[in-house]
């Protein structure tokens, strides 16, 4: 089984932490752009990628032809502020898609993970979902160009892409921690269940505030009706309301519960001064253990148990390892 793109990113960043070319306080964008730029099909802040990190997403592409594909000059090197921050190029083995993962950055000076302001964190998302969440087709237009012939496949926009979140807490402090986190760490119940339960809870709070009493039987029927509100692509669409001069649109945001934060006190093995790859445990982990260990021998592998979603495998590189290696040499 091929190594996932998030693991490649982890190995490249760990090796560069080891060399000292970056550190845990370097910009998160630099972690990705400098180490995996050529593997990316989408960069949200293409301006900084070129000006700060010397990487041109459009390198090797005839820029003059891009306008015909919906990419105007103003878009080429802009900060689009769309979801996600990065997307890897798709590969294909036989009829199966591989890679194409999403990377969203979350940076915080405190111990909590920065809020998810554009979409609910999940284990998978399709390109179709991403377009609806963003309310436009910019991300899919750019990835289609960078992915080339594979993007012509019928299911290119419909297959499930893995979601990873590059999070950092205590930025600028000795308590700093950084991790590439599998979306499964956040999606402990299905997003479909989460959405309708949210609407149900809002209804119950309104009933309580207004002192409106509804029989358990009626509430059960309401819950059954709300259980059909499960599709974020529909929820996120602008709605046309009769006689209304505006089109309301719901943008669901999310905050992480402390038990869903791998940098919290619930997971003491995720130590200060460490860079981690956190994946939901699976039979393939043994092979990945061997591969990562061979490429970065200083990485320690161990398991943590999510309070709400079972075993996750952690690959940890401690920045202090670089200092220890330096002292050995001198």
Task: Briefly say what this structure is.
It contains eleven helices and eleven strands. It is of the alpha+beta class and 330 residues long.
Description:
The chain is α+β, with helices and mostly antiparallel strands and 330 residues long. It has two domains: 5-186 and 254-329, no CATH class; 188-250, no CATH class. Helices cover 32% and strands 18% of the residues. It has eleven helices and eleven strands. The strands form two sheets. Strands 1, 2, 5, 6, 7, 8, 9, 10 and 11 form a nine-stranded mixed beta sheet that branches. A two-stranded antiparallel ribbon has the order 3-4. A hairpin with a 2-residue loop joins strand 3 and strand 4 (96-99). Helix 1 (5-19) crosses helix 2. The longest helix has 19 residues, at 191-209. The radius of gyration is 22 Å and the shape is globular. The chain starts with a helix and ends with a helix. The model is unreliable at 323-330 (pLDDT under 50).
């Amino acid at each position: 089984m091929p190594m996932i793109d998030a693991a490649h990113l982890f190995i490249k960043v760990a090796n560069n932490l080891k060399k000292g070319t970056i550190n845990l306080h370097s910009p998160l964008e630099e972690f990705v752009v400098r180490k995996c730029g050529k593997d990316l099909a989408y960069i949200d802040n293409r301006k900084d990628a070129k000006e700060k990190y010397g990487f041109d997403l459009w390198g090797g592409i005839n820029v003059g032809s891009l306008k015909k594909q919906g990419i105007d000059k103003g878009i080429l090197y802009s900060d689009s502020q769309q979801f996600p921050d990065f997307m890897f190029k798709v590969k294909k083995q036989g009829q199966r898609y591989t890679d194409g993962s999403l990377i969203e950055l979350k940076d915080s000076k405190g111990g909590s993970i920065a809020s998810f302001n554009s979409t609910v964190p999940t284990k998978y998302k399709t390109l179709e979902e991403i377009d609806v969440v963003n309310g436009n087709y910019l991300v899919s237009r750019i990835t289609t160009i960078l992915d080339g012939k594979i993007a012509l496949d019928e299911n290119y926009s419909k297959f499930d892409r893995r979601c990873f979140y590059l999070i950092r807490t205590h930025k600028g402090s000795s308590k700093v921690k950084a991790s590439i986190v599998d979306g499964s760490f956040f999606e402990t119940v299905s997003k479909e269940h989460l959405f309708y339960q949210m609407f149900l809870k809002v209804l119950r709070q309104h009933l309580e505030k207004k002192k409106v009493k509804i029989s358990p039987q009626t509430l059960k029927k309401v819950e059954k009706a709300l259980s059909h509100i499960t599709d974020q692509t529909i929820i996120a669409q602008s709605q046309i309301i009769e006689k209304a001069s505006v089109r309301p649109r719901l943008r669901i945001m999310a905050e992480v519960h402390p038990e869903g934060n791998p940098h919290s006190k619930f997971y003491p093995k995720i130590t200060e001064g460490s860079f981690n790859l956190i994946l939901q445990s699976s039979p393939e982990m043994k092979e990945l253990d061997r591969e990562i260990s061979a490429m970065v021998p200083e990485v320690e592998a161990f398991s943590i148990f999510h309070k709400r979603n079972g075993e996750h495998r952690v690959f940890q590189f401690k920045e202090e390892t670089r200092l220890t290696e330096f002292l050995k040499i001198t």
